[in-house]
Amino acid sequence: MQDCLFCKLIAKEIPTKVIYEDDDVFVFNDIHPRAQVHLLIIPKLHIASLLETNLDHQFLLGKLMLVANQQALLHKLQDGYKIQINTGLKGGQEIFHLHLHVLGNQN
Asked: Is residue 99 annotated as part of the catalytic site, yes or no?
């Protein structure tokens, strides 16, 4: 999607420090962190929100959760963390590319 900020980050059109990347997933720090650790986990496939997902996306959705857990543990959040997905305007979503927030405070 041409005007999508996250798609531009994935395409390296806008610089960011990449925390993790593979064929399906892209991870970086939120520029307005609300916790000591505040990662954004996004699929490389443009999906506007969780509302647009279906059974075809179940592998990708599962992978996003697994990557979120792996990254949380790598960032020393073994005592706990929060995963947040804002969905739609009324759900507080600001950027319309599906993304998971991983929030926590390191020990």
From this structure: yes
